[in-house]
Each structure stands twice: as structure tokens, then as C-alpha cells.
Design brief:
The chain is an alpha/beta fold. The strands form 7 sheets. The chain has an 8-stranded parallel beta sheet. Strands 1, 2, 4, 5, 7, 10 and 12 form a 7-stranded antiparallel beta sheet that branches. Strands 3-6-11-8-9 form a 5-stranded antiparallel beta sheet.
């Protein structure tokens, strides 16, 4: 059954949307009609509802995959990139339920499963209303699709109500998302600049203009760098094409590998800082700021030295504290932030190997004690490019409650070849903003398979426009740019020995150097007053009398600014 909605409302919840509703009887007002169950018991009950007359009680679950399910109409979803999932959930029995809404897809090659959303509900939450943009897989050879609820522990008995999955929903009231993003960019990334000029008596005011050169953005548009390649430029005394592209197109850097523990201390007491030191000094000389990546990596066998992985108990704890002291001290004044323990929702090496459940908190505390001025980040993947935001949110909350001085949230953005779901990225960023900490996209790339990079260009431009428009986002780091120095060459924006920008590279450069560049020649708006709303950042202003340069001045704009000359 296909219901085309102009203005559809779930009784009592008040969802008013335009699009196609995929779910039948999502409010359970008709009992369990349209719903089936697997490995459990389900019943429509009236004794505890979120809205309307009934909710669905799920009990006697025999496996993690056990739960209610509904077969979806393929005609509704097969050509859709994603949808908006809404529901309310509460625990009737149990303390916590870690769950997902999952698609079971029957294909010509068998059955596959896709998690649309992963979430957590606690008993103390009561009824918890959830709304999330979800990404669909490609349905090329899918013959049937079922949506079901699964999770753990088995003893949990959830109640669900108001289940809705809408596709084709118009979320652009008030203009397209691009128009809305551009309006936000103008509001939060620009300031009013006013320049008042006093002239010598022999200069005709009518001939005076101001040349405004935009040197760099205040907002970090950064990249990961190969430390060995930058060091070669330093040792050769000139910037090659790789170094030149980096300095001309980015204002912030991070070392891809050269600051990780295995790189800086491969054997205990044997330190190798050369690549990192050379890169950070090179960047500083060019006005580029830097962040550190990463003090530790929670996933086993990921850039943790073999000698460290051989330690356990208090020996490992001592080595961790010693490494904090060494790294934070050595790179003091060279970086503004550190990723502390990378990818904690995907690994727990230091907790498991040390036997110290507080080791993660201590990492942050020791680092903060060593340098209170730095920002110390959590950092993980499958957050904006995936569905594990709930686990991440739970981790951050737990660490904060345990006393970890977290001062930044990093979200990696390693996207595959599908279109980036703008609504979903926005939802996740704004949800994480509840912690009132700066959010950075620490590792961005988009890896498609088409060598012309046309779709790559579209997705890159969309992503940067969105992030630049979100006040919660404090910086975006591209995870490399050259196909010959990239962990995913197909995600690079320049290619070949001559570092020629592909379509994605051209799109990025067009944004940075054209659309978001405030360079201009200003005419007077008043009596020797020159005004423009400009992107926040660093500028060189030159006072011109015809072709003659009367003088110049370097300025920084971070808020509405009045400059006088001389």
C-alpha cells in the first residue's frame, strides 16, 4: 500500500510532513496489523502509551535479532537515497537497551543486513522520542526488504510507539538547503569591516580606494600531511608541488602518521621526531596552525609500538603516563589540540591490557595537567558517515561524568561512494552539540569509483558548504589531497606527478579562493570610509591613490571591525 502524503500526522505525536509514509500502522491504533515478530512476543497494549490508544510491547526476546518487523513496499523505497525515521521508545523492563532499527534485504545473492540507526535508551529516560535522517543502501538487486528492531540485553522489554519512515520528505521550507546554508554562512562566518582613512593634504580624496587582499580564513580549512614529504621540502630549501599546494590551499595541518606513538618512539627511549618537527616548523613559518594526532589509539595493532603492546598492568599504565609527558612536552607550543585516545568506540586496548578501567580518563587528566591551554579531543568514525552516534554520545557522557577534561569532539568523515545525507550530518552535529564542546571534522574524504570525479566534486562541495554553515563546527580537516600520498587514492583532489586538480579539487579551490574570498577593490561609502561585509580572517589592506600605493596594513577580522589608517 502506497500513501502519498501532503500533510500527514501520526495521531497525538504531531508529525506533519510531506512525502511517502512507508510504515503501516506505526501508532499501533489497529493493534499489530501490518506487523510481524521474530524470536519474541509482541502485543499492542493500552497501559502505557506515548500517544494515542496503544503502544507495542516487546517481550520474551530469545536473541539479539529478536523483535517486531514489518515488510516494506519496495516501490516506496527502491529509488530513494534515504528517509526520515521517527519513533518513541521506552523500557518497560530492564535498565538499558542498546538497539538498532535494521533492514533485512533479500538479494539475488542471499540476505544482507543494514543498520539504519543505532541508539540507546535507559530506564530513567521514560518515553524517548527519536527523529533521525537515515541512509538507505542501493537496492539494485534487492527483491524484498523488512525493517525490524533488534538489540541487547535479551531481558530488556521495550515499548515502541509512533513508528514512521518517510521518504521523499521536503525538508527545505524557507528555501533549498544550500540557500539556508549560505544564509547561515553570511551570518556566522562574516563580519562588517569599516576602514577610515586620513590622507595627507596633497592627496585628492576622490582618487583614493582601498585594495583588500584576503590572506587566510579564520575558520580552519585543513589537511593531513605526509611528514616525510614536508621534511624533504625543508631540507631542500624550497617547496615542491606537494608543499606548495598545501600552503596555498589550506590554513591548518595535522600529521597523518608522524606524531603517532609508533612513529615517535618505535623502541622504548628511542625518539624520532624529525618528520613531525620539520612539518610543524614549516607550517608555522607559513602561518598555518596545527593539531596533534594522536596520543593513543584504542584499537589494538594500530600505531601502538610493539614494545607497548607487550606491556600489561601497572607497567602499561606507567608507560602511558610517560608518553603523555614526553609528547605533550615535546610538541608544546607547536599544536593547539590533541586527539587523545583514538576510536574508543571501536577498541579498548589500554583498558583491557592495563586492567585499569579509569585509564581512559587518566589519559585526558594527565594531558590536561601537562598543558591546560590545549584542547583535548575524543575522535571516532561511523559518526557522521555511519550510524554509531549513540555509542559515541554515550562514551562522551560517561567520560565526562568520570572526570575526563574533554575539550573537543572529533568526528571523522570517511564517506564511500554514496551521496552524503545532508540532513543526517546536520542532525548528528546538532545532537553532539548538547555537550557544548567545539566539534571538528577531523578526517574528511569521499571515495567514489568514477574517474571523472564529477560526483566527487558535488559531494565535496555539499559537505564543505554544510560544515561551514554550522556554527557548531569549528574546523574541517581533509585527510590528504594527493593521490600519490593518500590512503584512498580515489578520494584525492589532485592527481599525478604534476598534482593536477581533478573536478573535486577544482570545486574545493573555487570555494576557498573565489566564493568564500573577500578580496576586493573598495570604493568610498562615505567621507573616506570604506565598508564591506567580509569573511573572518587575515587581510592585507593597501591604500591606493590611483596607481600609487600610499601604504599597507595587516589586519585580522574576527568580529565587526573598525580600522583607521594610518
Amino acid at each position: 500500500m502506497r500513501n502519498i502524503l501532503a500533510s500527514w500526522v501520526i495521531v497525538g505525536i504531531g508529525y506533519c510532513v510531506a512525502g511517502t509514509e512507508v510504515i503501516q500502522n506505526g501508532g499501533f491504533e489497529a493493534g499489530t496489523t501490518g506487523w510481524d515478530h521474530q524470536g519474541c512476543q509482541t502485543s499492542a497494549e493500552e497501559w502505557d502509551v506515548f500517544s494515542g490508544k496503544a503502544s507495542l510491547h516487546v517481550s520474551q526476546r530469545s536473541a539479539e535479532w529478536a523483535g517486531p518487523l514489518q515488510t516494506l513496499d519496495m516501490a516506496d523505497i527502491k529509488n530513494e537515497p534515504g528517509g526520515k525515521l521517527r519513533y518513541a521508545i521506552k523500557l518497560h523492563a530492564g535498565d538499558v537497551f542498546q538497539y538498532s532499527w535494521t533492514l533485512k534485504l533479500q538479494t539475488n545473492n542471499g540476505v544482507t543486513y543494514v543498520h539504519l540507526i543505532e541508539e540507546i535508551v535507559h530506564a530513567e529516560d521514560g518515553w524517548k522520542e527519536v527523529e533521525a535522517s537515515v541512509d538507505f543502501p542501493q537496492f539494485f538487486d534487492v527483491t524484498s526488504a523488512q525493517l525490524f528492531l533488534e538489540g541487547s540485553p535479551l531481558e530488556a522489554e521495550p515499548l515502541v510507539d509512533g513508528v514512521s519512515l518517510v521518504v521523499g520528505e521536503d525538508t527545505t521550507s524557507g528555501g533549498s538547503w544550500e540557500e539556508q546554508a549560505n544564509a547561515r554562512i553570511d551570518q556566522i562566518r562574516k563580519s562588517d569591516l569599516s576602514i577610515s582613512v586620513e590622507l595627507p593634504e596633497n592627496v585628492d580624496a576622490a582618487n583614493v580606494r582601498v585594495e583588500l587582499n584576503h590572506i587566510r580564513h579564520r575558520f580552519p580549512f585543513g589537511t593531513a600531511l605526509n611528514g616525510q614529504k614536508i621534511r624533504q621540502c625543508v631540507e631542500n630549501g624550497n617547496d615542491d608541488l606537494y608543499c606548495s599546494f598545501a600552503k596555498e590551499n589550506f590554513n591548518y595541518v595535522v600529521l597523518e602518521n608522524a606524531m603517532k606513538w609508533a612513529s615517535v618512539e618505535p623502541n622504548r627511549g628511542q625518539f624520532r621526531y624529525e618528520n613531525a618537527d620539520a612539518t610543524l616548523a614549516w607550517a608555522k613559518d607559513r602561518g598555518m596552525r596545527a593539531r596533534g594526532h594522536t596520543l593513543f589509539w584504542a584499537v589494538p595493532h594500530h600505531q601502538t609500538p610493539a614494545w607497548v603492546e607487550a606491556l600489561s598492568g601497572s607497567d602499561l599504565v606507567d608507560a602511558v603516563q610517560e608518553h603523555v609527558d614526553n609528547a605533550v612536552s615535546h610538541f608544546g607550543g607547536m599544536v593547539e589540540a590533541w586527539d587523545v585516545n583514538n576510536e574508543m568506540i571501536h577498541g579498548s586496548f589500554f583498558v583491557d591490557q592495563s586492567g585499569d578501567p579509569s585509564i581512559r580518563v587518566k589519559m585526558f587528566q594527565w594531558a590536561h595537567e601537562k598543558d591546560p591551554e590545549l584542547l583535548f579531543f575524543v575522535n571516532d568514525y561511523n559518526i557522521i558517515a555511519g550510524n554509531q552516534e549513540a555509542k559515541y554520545r554515550e562514551l562522551i557522557q560517561t567520560l565526562l561524568e568520570q572526570g575526563a577534561p574533554i575539550s573537543g569532539i572529533g568526528v571523522q568523515g570517511h564517506f564511500g561512494g554514496n551521496p552524503i545525507n545532508i540532513d543526517r550530518v546536520t542532525d548528528v552535529i546538532r545532537d553532539l552539540a548538547q555537550f557544548n564542546l567545539p566539534i571538528w571534522v577531523t578526517e574528511f574524504d569521499w571515495a567514489g569509483s568514477n574517474p571523472d570525479h564529477a560526483e566527487h566534486a558535488i559531494q565535496l562541495e555539499n559537505f564543505y558548504r554544510l560544515c561551514f554553515s554550522l556554527e557548531e563546527v569549528h574546523g574541517v580537516m581533509m585527510w590528504g589531497f594527493w593521490d600519490q600520498a593518500h590512503w584512498k587514492p580515489e578520494a584525492a583532489i589532485v592527481e599525478g606527478e604534476d598534482l593536477k586538480p581533478n573536478a573535486a579539487g577544482e570545486a574545493y579551490m573555487r570555494l576557498i579562493h573565489s566564493e568564500w574570498n573577500s578580496g576586493d577593490i573598495l570604493d568610498q561609502t562615505g567621507d573616506l570610509t570604506f565598508e564591506k561585509r567580509v569573511f573572518q580572517g587575515d587581510y592585507v589592506i593597501r591604500i591606493l591613490n590611483g596607481e600609487e600605493v600610499l601604504g599597507e596594513k595587516e589586519i585580522s577580522v574576527s568580529e565587526d571591525t573598525l580600522i583607521t589608517w594610518p
